[in-house]
Amino acid sequence: MDRVVNKSGDTPSKHMAAEKNPNDTGLGFNDIIAHLDREQTRVTVRLERRRFGKPSTLIEGLRLEKEGLHSLATKMKRKLATGGTVKDNMILLQGDMRLAAARFLVESGFQQQSIQVA
Question: For residue 28, is it within any domain?
């Protein structure tokens, strides 16, 4: 059986740190897929008058799983200090939050070019 020998001629101990691959970003496969989805997603942020003429902001086109969508909505509501919910794969925020929501999406990793504010 062959022994592994390092540059100094010693056999490495089991406590030595493994050499890092310079191409390794530390991201898993699912993280990379999620990042690519965010880059390619076409998101629409628009204002809609809901019940009793009150303004609501709708964010559509987010290709996220249910848990990810709820997590993003929760973070957005906290950051923007507003109420809201997730319905039919879109985030519904109370009030006219179009510009603030678009800024938040950019901070969350979505591309500026892929966000349309209507």
Answer: no
